[in-house]
Design a protein that fits this description.
Elements lengths: L2 H6 L2 E4 L2 E4 L21 E3 L2 E3 L2 H16 L3 E5 L2 E6 L2 E7 L2 E5 L2 E6 L6 H14 L3 E3 L1
Parallel strand pairs: 9-10
Antiparallel strand pairs: 1-2, 3-4, 5-8, 6-7, 8-9
Length: 134
């Protein structure tokens, strides 16, 4: 077996030994894994968002906050879902803010998973809050 054959199989020769090259070390052929739902992680103002759509929505809300249309903007508020004193799960929204004196809980959605649909109903049942989807 030649050196070229070993390289084709993902090995390289170091110190007379054939060593397996990991995907990250072999940058010529390494491609990062595509996310499950096709979203692209995006960073804005040092804050990491799960998708470019969520980052864009944050920028829009930030502008509305500076203009005075909304107040008390919070990122990723957590709502514990307790039933009969037992913590069932936690719902983490994308944004929470106040518009015209009304608290709004918003979630930027590309794909509505079955778990999300269930948690949306639980938030409505426990807190009486409708989640705004954008």
């Amino acid at each position: 077996m030649t050196t070229a054959d070993l390289k084709a199989l993902g090995y390289e020769i170091k110190g007379g030994k054939a060593l397996r090259v990991t995907k990250k070390e072999n940058k010529a052929t390494y491609k990062p894994k595509r996310s499950k739902y096709g979203n692209t992680r995006t960073e804005v103002e040092g804050i990491k968002f799960d998708s470019a759509k969520e980052a864009k929505r944050y920028q829009d809300l930030k502008i509305e906050s500076f203009a005075g249309a909304i107040s008390s903007l919070k990122l990723q508020p957590v709502y514990p879902i307790e039933i009969n004193g037992v913590l069932v799960c936690k719902y983490k929204g994308d944004f929470e803010y106040i518009r015209n004196g009304v608290k709004i809980l918003e979630d930027v959605k590309g794909m509505k998973t079955p778990i999300y649909r269930l948690k949306k109903k639980l938030v409505k049942a426990v807190y009486g809050i409708d989640i705004l989807e954008s």
